[in-house]
Design brief:
about 120 residues; about 65% helix
Length: about 120
């Protein structure tokens, strides 16, 4: 008698675990999805962090040096949240659309004249 499978583990007919696609067309496709997701996470996260730093430094109502420092510190949080969002997103389309829209909005926000920006 074969040993009982652990709770929650998928079992195919015959008591064996199903094979994981690591090679062939399905494995290549999965690796490309992961590569795309990580490229958008790192590249888009960097773009969001840089634009949020500039926008916050421009829009925060405090001394220029303090606004730039706070904007830079908050950019680290923006980058971390963007990467976590990209990893947790359910579909590649939603992830790409959300990152593109957020980047476009922050890019537009850099042109809003604020108390610390150009007068």
């Amino acid at each position: 008698m074969p040993p009982a499978p652990s709770a929650g583990a998928p079992v195919a007919a015959g008591g064996k675990k199903p094979p994981v696609a690591t090679s062939g067309p399905q494995g290549v496709r999965t690796r490309l999805w992961i590569a795309y997701r990580m490229t958008v996470a790192v590249g888009g996260g960097y773009a969001l962090a840089a634009l949020s730093s500039v926008a916050l430094a421009n829009l925060l109502p405090m001394a220029d040096e303090d606004a730039a420092l706070l904007g830079t510190m908050l950019a680290f949080v923006v980058f971390a949240v963007a990467v976590m969002f990209c990893v947790a997103a359910k579909s590649l389309f939603r992830m790409t659309a959300a990152m593109s829209i957020a980047t476009a909005l922050l890019w537009a926000a850099t042109f809003i004249p604020g108390p610390g920006g150009p007068q």
